[in-house]
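Recap for those who missed Tuesday's class. We walked through two folding examples back to back. For each one, the amino acid string is listed first and its predicted structure tokens come directly after. Nothing is annotated here on purpose, so try labeling regions yourself before you check the end of the notes.
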Amino acid sequence: MSIDTETAARVAKLARIKVEDEALEGLAQDFNTILGFIEQLQEVDVEGIEPMTGVTPMRLKRRPDGVTDGGMQDKVLSNAPDAREGFFAVPKVVE
């Protein structure tokens, strides 16, 4: 696949990038270079290769997913200007 200057101008417009007419030829060449790299990657045989998230094989640290109240109600409410019965107290705004 080859990108011409018209296609490069259209891509620039879709990306909302202002490109001067003189720079379109260089942009088209850059696009063609990128597409060439992609074509090279398409040629690599990856059959049976496990996908990886990083270059160092390691498991993510995990913790049990338990719902708690945080155990800090007193600490949290200590910053409140007005707290009653374990909750934030706010002025009534709807009548």
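Example two. Treat it independently of the first, because the proteins are unrelated.
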Amino acid sequence: MATIAACGEWIVSTCDSKLISIHTKQDREPFVFDCSAAEKKPKDTESDNKSDDGGADETGHDVILAVAVSPTGRLAALTDDSKRLVLFRCDSPWQCISTRWVVRRCTSLVFSQAEDQLLVADKSGDVYSFSVEEPHRTGELKLGHLSMLLALTLSPDDRYVISADRDEKIRVSHLKSPHNIQAFCLAHREFVSSLLIPAAHREWLLSGSGDGNVILWQYESGRELQRWDMRKLRELPDGTKDGEEEEKRSAVSRITSSPDGLHVVVQCERAATVQMLSLEKGTEDRLTPSHQLTLPHCPLDINFDPRGRLWVLLDSADTPFQVYTHTQAGWQRDADNAEVSRVTEALKPYWKDLQPLAVAESRFEHLYKVNFDNMESYMEKKRLRLEQQKSHWGKKRMTGDGNKTPGKKRSKENKVK
């Protein structure tokens, strides 16, 4: 999984088993953390010999599954498919604070606003809380869903934990007492893959799904405010017929917001465009589709830096990064940007690890519902059954009264006598 994030003046990218942090202002040696060379799991850990479904343990490949950056950019964390949870301090230089172990492979991480907790969602549907202040303390189970969790976020005041799962549910729970559910946000028709609370509206929640929709909620009440179908907003490429693009599954893979909260950007899988949603004057209570960036390659990930610039990680060895800045003329690419050049050159030695990450294959494909059309087979079985019945009764008609045995007839006559 390839990701991009900003930690202050550092741009952080992950690919395969490596996390690479590159300073944008100075020519410093990049910080590289390789999970394949990291601390191994102790043999006496409780979850040894237990897989994600309770069977024999499956060997992980040290592939990074999720990354999170704290609100101030002071901390970062990652988790991989070998069930590591690694905490970093993003100073100069970077420092690995601790390596802990999770019970199940994780899908999403989020720091609390106070940066004292790191919440972890896993594929079995559980959310654990890990202490930041006690970096070697084991996690505490907070809440659970009945299906795989895919996204997790916290309200800006750390009051609510918002979790989304494969069964289209978004649950808003009280962080201090997670058994107390504030609301459900229910409207998606497929798994919920992305959550975001935009900076400008602390009461809003944006959710993206495998159904291709982005929905804006008032999350405390679970009320839907707006909805956009990303497939309909997307400008069709030349030569594409109407409806042809809509037939392709394109899950929403990332929703991110500028630091001032005025711009929201939506990324969908296998689409060489990203959609902008903006808060415009006179419509401060609504988001409006404002612009669409057409990219030379499909993006692997997108994110804003603290200065409000949009960084795009592309599926391209030659130009892995592009940066866009908002001006009066709209979103413009910073073509001759020294920071982009510095980050690109620093990342190139590790780019070979990104090559197997082809975006042509969806990382969400296995999460879609499988619909079985039983009607056709049912009707065929019914037709055969009716034909057999007709054939059976036809044979009886051809034999006439001969189907009544003489013995039965005599017994009836004896009764009359």
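Answers for example two:
The helical segments are 230-233, 338-347, 375-399, 406-416.
Residues 375-399 form the longest helix (25 residues).
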